[in-house]
Write a structure and sequence with these properties.
Layout (H helix, E strand, L loop, with lengths): L7 H136 L3 H16 L1
Length: about 160
């Protein structure tokens, strides 16, 4: 039974070695492990705090981003409204200018037509008067071919001139 029941010396030395190893572990290893655990706990706390701060920063950035989006939408609407107004103004100005140009062209055309009409009438009057003179000359030559007819015409003209 010696194998099953250990001797007192063995128990003593085993207990002594156990206490020595336990003391070494308690003095050397436990503080290192404890310090490592505290450092790990602090780093986790810091990481959690940083994560909460990042979450708050993200919320702030989202709010700022929404504000900027609203500002950009307002600017876009303002630009679109301004562009529409300018386009309408340009269309109105172009229409007015086209109307003015058309009126000027019509007025110029009327003036030109009137001038050409007057010129044509003057030319027609000149042609008519020449034809009238030619006809009158031929008629008078034919009527005044004898001396008695000439005397009668001169007397009539003198009488008409005195009236």
């Amino acid at each position: 039974m010696d194998i099953i029941t250990p001797g007192i010396g063995l128990l003593f030395w085993n207990t002594l070695f156990f206490l020595i190893v336990f003391a070494i572990i308690g003095v050397k290893i436990v503080p290192v492990i404890s310090k490592g655990l505290k450092d790990r706990e602090e780093s986790i706390d810091n990481a959690l705090k940083a994560a909460e701060q990042a979450k708050a920063d993200i919320a702030n950035l989202k709010a700022e981003n929404e504000k900027e989006k609203e500002k950009a939408r307002a600017e876009r609407e303002e630009i679109i409204t301004s562009a529409k107004k300018k386009a309408d103004q340009m269309i109105t100005e172009a229409t007015e200018q086209a109307k003015t140009e058309a009126k000027k062209i019509v007025d110029d055309a009327r003036s030109s037509i009137d001038a050409e009409k007057r010129e044509a009438l003057a030319e027609i009057k000149g042609v008519v008067s020449e034809l009238s003179l030619d006809i009158a000359e031929k008629v008078i030559r034919k009527q005044l071919s004898d001396d008695a007819a000439q005397q009668e015409l001169v007397a009539k003209l003198v009488e008409d001139a005195n009236i």
